[in-house]
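Quick question, first post here. What does this chain look like in 3D?
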Amino acid sequence: MNKFVVGVTGGIGSGKTAATDRFQSLGITVVDADLASRVVVESGRPALKAIEEHFGSGVIAPDGQLDRRALREIVFADPDERKWLERLTHPLIAQEILSQIQSSTSPYTILVSPLLLEGNQHQMVDRILVIDVPQDIQINRTIRRDTTTEAGVKAIIAAQMQRQQRCEKADDIIVNDKDLASLHEAIDRLHTTYLDMANARHKQL
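> Answer (accepted):
Ran it through. Tokens below.
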């Protein structure tokens, strides 16, 4: 794959969506691993049938779609169940992501994924950008956004890669603890850098 791909990741509530919205507004294709993960478990897909057989009908919503919240509560409470789900879905998600990257026509492509560094998805990217934020802001933002509990957010944070470990693996870090304008300024600077890198890659081909 000859495309220049930047992986964007960060913990829950860090502002990944706000960051990738900005890249998109600059004309950059954003491939979202979360959206790819939804595609592979859509109604009628083999993965959804396997999930229902394993976890029971309680994870299927009345409309026949996956009840993602019900499934999330199960897998975040039981590491073995989470591993089972990952073994099923991760290869399918990887295929979907690669297909979308190959279809991209922008100068470089963003792959945004909360699990970029936990599995093999980082192997699809040339550079890693971490959207970083202090834990107290993570918790407050997520509670406001998802109307969930502090304990629930902390459980998700605990299941994700630790903040320091994530930052150690980054090529670029944006600390998103200010306003949206500050985030946009930081992204605009990186956008110029990534365009230069993508052009350099293109010239080598």
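The first strand starts at residue 5 and ends at 9.
The chain has two domains: 1-28+107-205, 39-105.
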